[in-house]
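just leaving the lab so this will be short. below you get a single protein, a line of residues and a line of whole numbers that encode the local backbone shape. id like you to explain what the token line says about the fold, in plain words if possible. thanks a lot i owe you, the record is right below:

…
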Amino acid sequence: MTRNANRRGRLVVLAGPSGVGKSSVVHELRKLYPDLWFSVSATTRDQRPGELDGVDYRFVTADEFDRMIKNDDLLEWAEIHRGIHRSGTPRAPIEDRLAAGEPALVEVDLQGARNLREAMPEAYLVFLSPPSWDALVERLVQRGTEAPEVVERRLRTAKEELAAQSEFDAVVVNTDVRSAARDLLKLILDKSSDQLENH
């Protein structure tokens, strides 16, 4: 993508229920298009095996997160899964990227997507959907990283999130990670071109 300081970049927001494969799709997207810039969310949740601090998430303590809120360092933030942890989108890296005329991709939950739409109405929201409810349940159970009561809580939240698909500008169904990543990349590149042409 060519830097263009005269035009503002496009913020593309990816959201979907827990277990739908957002992280897997983003990982595949990084392989397909290494030059695409990804926002790294700050989170107070525990680091999962294989996740890298500063790459997958910026893992912070509750006190550090409180300071980020107080200093207005987050574009949006939310309590996740009814208060189990908090996550947020650092403001400065996104604003810098968009000001440079380049697109930015943010991966968040439904609440984060709504907050980003409110903060930046021009953002393009993409919902990553499972191929079916059963597939989502299977993915969450097979993940094996959370206790059964946490999985149940995530499934309750997922029902609410799936019901909100109509709030999004586009829906990508994650039947296959590579295909979903390709579909998402096409939307990002199309929307970025639209943004440049409309200025």
About this structure: The beta strands are 11-15, 42-43, 58-59, 74-80, 85-90, 104-108, 124-129, 170-173. The first strand starts at residue 11 and ends at 15.
